# Entry
Amino acid sequence: MSQHAYHHNARLAWRSLKRDLRAADVRALFIALVLAVAASTMIAFFLDRLERGLERQASQLLGGDVVLEQRDPFAPELRRELEDAGFTLSDQVDLVSMISRGERFQPASVKAVDDVYPHYGVSRVERGNGTEELASGPPRGEAWADPRLAELIDLEIGDSIQVGQAEFKVSGFIEREADQSAGFGSFNPRLMVHTDDLEATGLVQEGSRVEFEILAAGPPEALERVEPLLAELRQRGVEVRDIRQDRPQLGNALERAESYLGIAGLAAVLLAGVAVAMSTRRYVERHLDTAALLRCFGASQQQLVEIFALQLLGLALVAALIGALLGLVGQAALLALLVNFLPMTLPPPGVMPLFLGVLTALAVLVGFAGPTLLRIKRVSALKVLRRELDPMPPAAWLVVSVAALVFGGLLWLYSGSLPLALALLVGGAVLLAVLWGLSTLLLNGVLAIVQRLSGRGEWSKALRLGGRQLARRRQAGLGQLLAFSVTFFAMAMMVLVRGDLLTAWQAQLPENTPNYFAINIQPDERDPFEAAVDPHVEEKSTLYPMVRGRITAINGDDPREAVPADARGDNSLRRELNLTWQAEVPEGNEVVAGEWFDVDANAVRETSDWMSAVDATPQTSPVPISMEDGLAERLGLTLGDSLTFSVGNDDITTHITSLRSLNWDSFKPNFFVIFPPDVLESFAHSYITAFYLPDDAQGLTRELVQDFPGVTLLNVDAILGQVRDVLTQVTRAVELILVLVLLAGISVLYAALTASRPVRAHESGLLRVFGAGNRMISRIQGAEYALLGFASGLMGAALVEIATGALYITVLDLAPRLHLGLWILLPLGGALLIGLIGHALSHSLRRQAPAASLGLLGEA
Amino acid sequence: MSDSSSSYVSAPYAHASSAPSVLKAQSLCKSVTSGERSLTILHELSLDVAAGESVAILGKSGSGKSTLLGLLAGLDTPTDGELTLFGKQLSRLDEDGRAALRAGRVGFVFQNFQLLPSLSALENVLLPLEISPRVGESQTAQEWLARVGLGERTSHLPKQLSGGEQQRVAIARAFVTDPELVFADEPTGNLDPDTGAQVIDLLFSLNQEAGTTLILVTHDHALARRCNRCLRLENGRLTPFTPESLGEDA
# Structure
């Protein structure tokens, strides 16, 4: 094709596009494309920024991009290697030591930091002039103390404290460390000093329990470069944490929200695609005359395709632009909603999502409109003489396959997982085939029932006539039925999933979720402590006994040899674990494999065996234990594996008889390993519990601190508040997305009704010629739409049940349930909604003279 | 064009002028099958039209006039027989090839005008110019609209024009590419007699000025009488008619 002809085509395309913007189908097409792009870019923008922000936050919480930890000082060669790779290094030493002020003693977790500290973020320190944000550690000779420490040994700023053999001046209270996640892993209060002062304390000696850390900060390429080195270090038993593996746990709530956003985005794209397909059909039908005329004047098939493709391409590009802008605004709104819980400012939006948006628009257009558009190409010039000569519409399977292929591609693009995309696609195709069959049955059923209506009233007559109209256009009706049911399905599902997500979240953190942890309760304090707390608290977890024990052998071998290479540096092998014993499965735990201990009468013999196992040697039978499934998976352990624990001066050999799953976000004491009763009692143990103290009973903490000086009380209100904030804000974000999905759904309804308008106009014109009044026509049309809506609602409800069930089990990790209300609400709501929209859309038709209505068919 | 330039012969109803042949049909057959039944619409039909000639094809409703027009213009393909347009055998061309042959060289006037409702009068006239490989100028389109008396209404949409005016736009559109051949299918079929007469006057005067070949399909004898040559389509065959033998109604 010559440049000139191309130019002509473009001009022709542009001119007809400008005029076409007034046409309902082009408007519907445009709106659908804008929505698809807006939804996908909004979510892509948001997730992209969140992802990058989380990475930065991960670095901050970790203290660096890579953190190495071991019991001995690191070799200078390793440091050089890391520096050569492009990292800046910061040294840190952790140890637990008794500190004193005068006669008061308290164990503290001492952290020594160097001048580089911190790599990221700031610490919040009170140095006598209100809280300051400082990007450094304490200077030499000074120490910053946890306010809890100050309370325990009555510290004031300026006081001197003794740490080992050195004396420090307390120059600040540290409220938040730059590199500490909001957990409560360390029970001892913190004291931060400078690494240069460490030698003077004399605490770092052969055999003392000291952790040396290198905190390395550098670009992603540096991390890439040291990957083999890190793997080797892990195998040598060095604990290696990097931002990719140790991202901060924002918890299930945010993960689910991310899944939800992803699904919702795709639902919006799918709905928009359906709308595009429907409006394209009408668009093509409307332009068949034009195409035939152009053919008559000598246009080639290629020229025709070019003219119309250019026109739609222009439309798609404008829509993509507007959609992307809306997406940009939308993600800003999404961020504004979530700003309080995102502790850092997110990096600015990137350009990638913009490309994604344009790509989405084009893909939706090609996939959902392509095969239909090609119909224009096949138009015969003879149609100018014989109107009825319309080219056959493309085969349904072709339209569906192309759309499915493109949508599958989008799924792949957005999910990043080909198997997932394929599975969804194949599932979707099977579902569609089943759906087609079911729709046919359903439509036939509904129509048969309607035809049997024997009432002589106006409404039953309208229903009969409306039903007959629907029956005459069975294929078109089926298409609409499918489109409507998929729309109802997507809309209802998003509403339902949102509701169930919220219920699940609320159940996860109910009103009286424990806000205090009490640890170090000695056995003789147990009953008095319970007596003191119980009258004031509404909700309290069991008091769990706690014994410290270290894993010394796995299946008889050195634990580090027995576990997968990448688990050799795992915390559980390097530190003592908190062990407990319980007769029953603790609340919130679920046995997922094996059997819980059989602690009843006929197990007495075995119990005595366990006792002998502890008291006497040789051991007769290993002690059954229950292990958290996550830990078992990390260490490569399964039922029947044997573990030896060193507790006190004894070794206890155990075997795993059950695996438990538990919710780490529950704000209750949780344990990796649970023993049966009567095994660990003889060892030194203390108790831990969690309880909810309402605001007006906060005075109790003072009493408890006084009466039980050895018990440590941890207030987790702040963390709890933070998690609650996350839930509230994520909920709002989810609602915002839901609005988009609903809009996409409405665009489908609009497109579908627009597409069928001329045929209905023709029918109502005929009816009027035969003498039907306005009221009758309006009732017949209302009845037809309502029947369609009713059947679509039934179908949608069935789809929702299938899909939510699958979704809950696979993606959202919730228990599936039946939604009975849906079976009533969707069909009735569908009848009402489609009936009303259809009624409103055909309002103008009813006022038209029959001649005009009859002439409308086939013309614009 | 004078009547003397053509004569009526029995078969193959060829022109007797020395002008070169624009369109030549030989033994054209067209039948359609519906289920097991086959219906022959055109039967061994031959026709030769010389450049500059005006030919009227008369026939009753359902006689196959439109089918014949479709075949002659290359909009449709015959079941059998050969058709030569501008010296090219249509059977050797595919759909696109036939379209390319028409581009800029063939004009059409339809019974139902076939104006695109969303285009203005000017844009409708521009349409064939934009398709044809020749450079289309909106100046040319404007001139043609002025020649059919609608110079002041270029921006009007078809629905803002009367039937007669719409057909005048269609005539301007048919002549705007300076075609060698114009097909007219019942050009007055949708118009009242007075308006029809005006439109016909316009069609014939433009045709005469431009020296275009005109093939006109109609059931209006008065209209047919203004052509050089009249043929009647009956039972799938063409038979010649002298103007004198035509009554007022077929």
User: Anything to note?
Assistant: Confidence is low (pLDDT under 50) at residues 1-12, 246-250 of chain B. The domain at 7-242 of chain B is CATH 3.40.50.300 (Rossmann fold). Chain B touches chain A through 34 residues (CB under 8 Å).
